[in-house]
Amino acid sequence: KIGESLASFTPNRYDVRAALRPGGAANELVIRVGASRASLPPSVPTGWDIEKKSYIPGLFDSVELVLSGTPSIVNVQAAPDIAAKQVQVQAQVRNAGPAATAGLKFVVREWKSGEIVGQAETAAEPLAAGAEKTIEVRVPITGCRLWSPEDPFLYTLEVSTGADTFQTRFGMREFRFEPRQGDRPGRAYLNGKPYFLRGSNVTLYRFLEDPDRAALPWTEDWVRLLHRRFRDMHWNSLRYCIGFPPEFWYRIADEEGFLIQ
User: Fold this and answer.
1) Half-sphere exposure of 199 (CA within 13 A, CB side)
2) pLDDT for 170-180, tens place per residue?
3) Are 178 and 189 in contact (CB under 8 A)?
């Protein structure tokens, strides 16, 4: 047994090294999805509302077997700072081997052109055996271009330890709500300017009630066409609700120009 999780939509990561059979021996990975409410312990909350009338277990997103050297990159967070025209990066690094030193390299590229617009490196730091460390840097972006639904411009960030590489994507954007002040109503701000939200709800579990839906919510071309039809109606925002969609929905929203709640 490698591990288990009682979470609903939360992704999980497991270390399978101890179970691997080297030298050409067969390796079989079995994933069991719980299919009965009765099998859950009392500590797991449950409920019955209209969206849960039919209990629908399953895998909502991808399953991957990741091979890397060490130190490896566990997670990367990219936070845009549009005033300073830079991205603040936090990289979580794990050392699965003996004590070592690790220096990180950060490269920012325009997503579509691949042109390098920012780079940074950190000096090698000691990392004890089995240790984790979070390394933070700020990477200035040359010719910084802001993301908006009208201009959904994106960047990629690549982080490397020399033994492992991790890539993520981000837009240079900042979003906030300003509360009501006296007679002045509250409003949304995108990149420092008032922004009016137009859109609707996309309720994921309702797809599961549709006998004709088949695998459409997991079909990228169909999901992209769905969002483009929303754009045809001059929408710029959506609320994904009643379940989380697969990760690629958020990637498509980034590319097609949608603010997501």
Assistant:
1) 20
2) 999 999 999 98
3) yes
